[in-house]
Amino acid sequence: MSLELVNISKTFTNARTKEEVEAVRAISFKITTGTFVSLIGPSGCGKTTLLRIISGLEHPSSGTILLNEKEIAKPDGQVGLIFQEFALFPWRTVIDNIDFGLEIKKIPTQKRKERAEFYLHKFGLEGFANKFPKELSGGMKQRVAIARTLINEPELLLMDEPFGALDSQTRNSLQEFLLKIWQETKKTILFISHNIDETVFLSERIFCLSSRPASIKLTLDIDLPYPRERTSLEFNLYRKKILDYLAQERTQLGG
Predict the structure, then answer these.
(1) Domain residue spans in the chain?
(2) What pLDDT, on the 0 to 100 scale, is given for residue 254?
(3) Structure pTM?
């Protein structure tokens, strides 16, 4: 699924003071089907606001969003969204969390359980089908969250700092896991991260955003084969480009 943003801007108005805050300014880009693209930028610059606009959870103040060249303005079943918070239902078992979307669609019980069991196997969760979220590690919870999204077969996957709450070893493991899933499914992925190493490891293209209001100030195409070696000279040259860019942004803010 292709995604195109055309001059997307967003301004919030404080209901009490009527003060306006510009969060996103005139962002345009196009992502072709099956690509992995990341957004990175200073904290609070408007990355999550932009993702919420793309998902249909927020309306832009101006501009147009196109999915496969058709304009969207509300949540679309072709778009899946994964947050940093695992957002699992604590009262539902793992398998019942995974098949929740199919239950809402009134898919027959047997069919949705078969689909959920497929994802349990695919994600290495077979022995945890009847466990509750409180009994899982952080990495397992995020696997369940990804499975619950993919079972609905979205074409576009939006991921908002999905590994930010995890320790570094688990984070690296899930990055490799996500890379494998992406290569197998050919989903189009738009990924938000504050982690430079993570974005270079995963992405084909990186959009570097400015301080608020967010605009695209640097685009990097990562010309490295998969799997990528995090300690290679080429990998670290890309890391340095992003580090230098973010340092420049901080300087302009006086930080």
Answers:
(1) 86-153
(2) 59
(3) 0.93
